[in-house]
Amino acid sequence: MRRRIVVAAIALICGALATSCAGPTPLQLDTGKTTVEFSFRDSSVPPQYHRSYVIKATNKEASITVDSYGDVLAQETTAMPADTWTKVLELAGTLPTRAEAISEPEPGCTGGTASKIVIRDGDQDRYSKSAENCGGRSDKPLTETVAPLEALFDMKQLLKTGN
């Protein structure tokens, strides 16, 4: 009897470990209901050089708002090309796996930038990930996902500093 309990306990532990070690599963996203929101927070610099922005996207359009410490500097909206949206959803679907290695910055790390992505299906958050790009940390999986959206805008002009 005792042996059966030990064997059952070992089997239960092994099953739990196998499930938890399987890693994140890809997101199954609905083309018509999914929204992607990406936020970039610039480092702490004087206002004339600070540029943060938020991109919001659906299957119909993408919009960007650029600000300097909350003062809106530019806003644009553009139609969403079908091929761009398809690429964004492919990248967003694999983001849980690609972003798994993003870690928290070391305490006291200052002066860096930050990124955050939120993927929603209707009103439900499906995935959210923040990254501090400080002390050698990278937010590459997030920026790779949003790159097709950024390509819809003249980012160089929108983020132009010194105005």
For this entry, give a set of tags.
alpha+beta; single chain; 4 helices; 6-stranded antiparallel sheet; 6 strands; flat
Describe the protein.
There is one protein chain. The protein is α+β, with helices and mostly antiparallel strands. About 30% of the residues lie in helices and about 30% in strands. The chain has helices spanning about 1-20, 80-100, 140-150, 155-160, and strands at about 35-40, 50-55, 60-70, 70-80, 115-120, 125-135. The protein has a six-stranded antiparallel sheet, covered by helices on one side. Helix 2 (about 80-100) runs antiparallel to helix 3. The longest helix has 19 residues, at about 1-20. The chain is flat. The chain starts with a helix and ends in a 5-residue tail after the last helix. The relative contact order is 0.19. The mean pLDDT is about 85.
